[in-house]
């Protein structure tokens, strides 16, 4: 067994960014903030670096990586670009939107899990963009956590779960959005499909593309299949504590069972929590992963959690994560 690494947090100073960029060029990994969640970044064109990502996360080989770029020109060198991709990129990049497109031959198969397509995104977070510039190459960056566990939205979350496995964490504070990017499949521009819901909705994409973007209610791949994009496996984002979802919380469940309302101002018990601070799905998304981590670290025998109401525009994205998080308990 390899000895544990000393894991350090770095602020985004010019010196540190140059140092971390050099480490990435040498094939090392750097955890870094995006506007969605923290990612575990490595040189997307370096097979050994990508293998290190899979090893650090204990990620199965059938779950592909998202490649992050700083400019559209870089994306075009990695994909078979089309007019739909151009329209979507102009509308939503940089931002929390990933596109699946046919890949060019030089994109390593390990990045795409052997599929002929690649997931690609231009992130908005200023520190990640500076890191891309410092590395001067596209970066593969899945969420910076052990596979299947709750995604990290702070540098401290990363250190708690990957400390000893990686050397470098770029600390950019809490992530602004809190859930992973929307993934849209544009391999067939006439029939675009949302593979993973996120902050950008199918309706927004439809308005830009001028065609209906399909958004399946449930989009799940078994753990034995190769996925077209990350975040599609049936079980994901899961706490160790059993989790049950409810449209409305039931009555008394026991003092050792945490009760998480979607939004409730008059919490009365020590086991009661509110997922949203203001009654919006957007704030629930921002708090969800951090709250699940906090509850998972507590002495709870079970977590009962209310779904985001269906009428909220963030409901598909947040409830998708919660459904997969609860799958371990099913």
From TrEMBL:
The keyword Lipid biosynthesis is annotated on this UniProt entry: no
Catalytic reaction(s) noted: L-threonine + hydrogencarbonate + ATP = L-threonylcarbamoyladenylate + diphosphate + H2O
GO molecular function annotation: ATP binding; double-stranded RNA binding; L-threonylcarbamoyladenylate synthase; tRNA binding
GO terms for biological process, alphabetical: regulation of translational fidelity; tRNA processing
UniProt keyword tRNA processing, yes or no: yes
EC number: 2.7.7.87
Domain YrdC-like intervals: 14-200
InterPro entries xref list: DHBP_synth_RibB-like_a/b_dom, Sua5-like_dom, Sua5/YwlC_C, Sua5_C, T(6)A37_SUA5, TC-AMP_synthase_SUA5
Residues annotated for L-threonine binding in this entry: 36, 68, 121, 141, 181
Enzyme class: transferase
SUPFAM superfamilies documented for this protein: YrdC/RibB
UniProtKB keywords: ATP-binding, Cytoplasm, Nucleotide-binding, Nucleotidyltransferase, Transferase, tRNA processing
Pfam families recorded: Sua5_C, Sua5_yciO_yrdC
Compartments in which it is found: Cytoplasm
Family per record: Belongs to the SUA5 family.
PANTHER family linked: SUA5, THREONYLCARBAMOYL-AMP SYNTHASE
Protein purpose: Required for the formation of a threonylcarbamoyl group on adenosine at position 37 (t(6)A37) in tRNAs that read codons beginning with adenine.
Protein name: Threonylcarbamoyl-AMP synthase
Lineage, highest ranks first: Bacteria, Pseudomonadati, Verrucomicrobiota, Opitutia, Opitutales
